[in-house]
Design brief:
Blueprint lengths: L5 H15 L4 H52 L6 H15 L8 H6 L7 H24 L7
């Protein structure tokens, strides 16, 4: 660190003994040891602070990469419909049947015919029974109890 050789260290010790004197030498060495300890402690705190700053910078960089990857994934996957988009067909069906508090007479309910289904809606209704049958067969294979009603 300071690149002090053995001969240089010996010269410093001889000068210290001559200048300080042999009686006060132990007290001077203790004082020097305390100063060195304090300097090491301060340098340790400084090093820890620098390491913490480096870790925070790396963490921020990793967080930016994660956000970029997350955005790329979100753009590449299809979006699910929002709650408002899902409630729009329900609201239109309720509008056809009348208001929520309104009850139809049994004669009116019997004469109502459902509107013809579009291709997508009929395909979805055809898939529902198949999905239910597949789910029942999977439950039977795994010996699972049936789902609650």
């Amino acid at each position: 660190m300071f690149d002090i050789g053995a001969s240089e260290l010996l010269m410093v010790i001889i000068v210290a003994v001559v200048v300080i004197g042999p009686k006060d030498m132990p007290m001077a060495m203790r004082t020097a040891g305390r100063w060195i300890g304090k300097m090491r402690k301060i340098s340790g705190h400084f090093r820890a602070g620098v390491d913490a700053m480096v870790r925070e910078a790396e963490l921020e960089e990793m967080e930016k990469q994660w956000r970029a990857q997350n955005e790329a994934i979100m753009k590449s996957t299809p979006q699910l419909p929002s709650a408002e988009e899902m409630q729009a067909p329900i609201a239109s069906r309720q509008g056809d049947a009348g208001s929520v508090g309104e009850a139809k007479s049994p004669e009116a309910a019997a004469t109502d015919t459902p509107a013809p289904l579009s291709g997508e809606q009929s395909a979805a209704q055809d898939e529902a029974p198949r999905d239910a049958k597949e789910q029942q067969s999977r439950q039977a294979e795994l010996n699972l109890p049936p789902p609650p009603p």
